[in-house]
Each structure stands twice: as structure tokens, then as C-alpha cells.
Amino acid sequence: MAAEGQRAEIYTYESSSLVYSCAWSVRPDRPFRLALGSFIEDYNNRVEIIQLDEQRGAVTSNPALAFQHPYPPTKVAFIPDKDGTRPDLLATVRTLFCKRAQCHLLAVVLSQDGTRPDLLATSGDFLRIWRITDDASGGGGVRLEKLLNNNKGGEFSAPLTSFDWNELDPARLGTASIDTTCTIWDVERGVVDTQLIAHDKEVYDIAWGGVGIFASVSADGSVRVFDLRDKEHSTIIYESPQPDTPLLRLSWNKQDPRYIASLAMDNSRVTVLDIRYPTLPVAELQRHRAAVNALCWAPHSSAHLCSAGDDCQALIWDLGLLGGLGPGEGGAIAGANLDPILAYTAGAQVNQLQWSSAQPDWLAICFGNKAQILRV
């Protein structure tokens, strides 16, 4: 137990089942709150909301906020609830792609009292939006707000592998699917804004880089960037050098949108890309000893990246030590020689990692049936 007025460095929560998906809440009135999704090879799965009880020095689950979920949720995420719209980030991304743009009105999902509701999105067989009622006494509940299904009239809906909620425009959410498409939803109206055939094979992940710009990775081994003002075209910024090697995850640097990190299936390397220089990575990080499963840029720093994998390691990298990233063989070699500045060994293979944007000194990892909150 932590001493009064002092937090521990590590908090561990043990669930009743294997944990796969994880997300931090960014609400300022709910610090140290996370959503966890189970991984049970069955129809019946669950999502629970856990919270650090600072008085007890322990992470607890509120039974009133746990709910059943069909199939394992491939991702969970709270609605972005930050002040400001980061116009600097938006301008930077648009400049990088040199597109002529019309003014885009930033929509904001608002409740009647002018604040954003406490919403949680989950993906699996469908995209679901849940509304959380969480009071200080430990009561409350969760109800299904919307079930979003783009397969009108059909019995089969292609499973969703991932999604990303747009921080600059919280009314907009993008999903990735095994049917090769990315779908952009208007969450406020519950309708599809755009659906794109994004890749030649299954799409495994999606990440926003601005209001109308997103990237995706696929089983076809490519990283592609899309601008919604030009829906007929995309930019392939990277292709795996090994044929038929799926790319599983990507993370877009929110502090410096020139950079995207990605990882391949059953591969121990983390590839860092500069969207200004397609094809060639600017760094390849090679200190993991087994497959990397998750990666995340620091929410408060443009130079720091965390990765975790089957070697039970969570590693934090400082790319600023490379002295400026540049494309080509030199950057990849420099990255290969870079050592992490911090390393943590978990009790099992790490399958999920999330860095808190509300408390950037903390990140969460998931392994087995445990979730750990770590001070970095």
C-alpha cells in the first residue's frame, strides 16, 4: 500500500479472465480510470471499468460499470475529452500533404449541458458506443447508446479489427475491417460518412493524423495514408520488405505528425516512418527479443515511443538520441543500435500497451489476466 500522499510506482489489477483491450479515460474528473476488455474464445465476453483508489493504494473494479460484450472486443476507447482543438497539429499535417483545402468545421459531440458525455467505444462484430453513468459513490451503470452497422440488410458483417476516435473532431470515428475497408462514422448521427476500400487484404489498424487524414496498415504489408478531401487516392508510405508479411499496428505521433511507427506480425522490430519520405524507414528499433505486440507514442513528447511484446518487455525509446531522423539505410542502422532508456519486465507476454494522455507519467500494460499501471 502506498504511503499517505505518495503514489506507488506500480499498481496491478487482476481480472477474472484474460485481458486484451485497454484504454485510459482522459476526463480530468476521472483520473487513473481505465476500461479493460476480456479475451475469451467464446461469444460471451465483458468490459470492466477499473479505477485507482488513491486512499487504499489499490486498483478496483466497479461492478456497476462492468457489462457483457459479444465476442472479445478488439479495441476499447473513451471519447477524447481534451480542451482545445490543436489547430497547430491540423495545420502541420495538411501542409505536409500539400492539399488545397476548404475550411472544415470541427464538430464536437456535446450533451445538452454543453459537456461531452462519458462515452466508450468498442469494436468486434460491430462498432458500439456505450454511455457511462459514474457517480462518486461507486454507483452508476453503462447502457448501449448506439450499435453502428454498415451492412444494411445483410446477415453477415465483417469483423472490425480496430478503430480510432478523432481527437480533433470527436464526432468522427474510423474503423478498420477484415473486408479491406476503412469506414469513417459520424458518431453524432450514427451514420457512415465515408467508406473506402483501403487495402488489398485485411486492414488491421487505423490511426488519425488530423481531422480528415488517417493512416492504416494491412495484411498486404503496406502503410497507407488517406486524405478525405481526395477519396479516390491514397499514399503508400511504406511496404514491408518481406513479401506477404502483414503489418498489424501503427501509431501516429501526435506531437510531431511527420512520424508514424508500425510493427509487423511475428517481428521483433519497430519501424519508424517519416510521411515526407515514403518507402524508407527513418529508424528500426531492434532491442526486443521476441515479437512486438503493441506500441504507443508518448502523448506529451515527440521523441519518446513505447513498445511491448512477447519477450515480456515494455521498452521506452528516446528517438531524440538519434540526433535527427532521416530516411534511408543510415537512419535504420542508427535505430538498430539505439538502446531503450527504460525497460520493464512483466510477468508474462505483454499484449497491450496504452500511454495516458491525462497523466503522461503513467502507462498501462496488459498481460495474462492482469493490467498494470506503471509510473515512467
UniProtKB/TrEMBL annotation:
Originating organism: Micractinium conductrix
Phylogenetic classification of the source organism: Eukaryota, Viridiplantae, Chlorophyta, core chlorophytes, Trebouxiophyceae
Name the UniProt record assigns to this protein: WD repeat-containing LWD1 isoform A
TM region(s), chain numbering: none
Swiss-Prot/TrEMBL WD repeat ranges: 285-319
Repeat is among the record's keywords: yes
Matching InterPro entries: DCAF7-like (IPR045159), WD40/YVTN_repeat-like_dom_sf (IPR015943), WD40_repeat_CS (IPR019775), WD40_repeat_dom_sf (IPR036322), WD40_rpt (IPR001680)
Keywords: Repeat, WD repeat
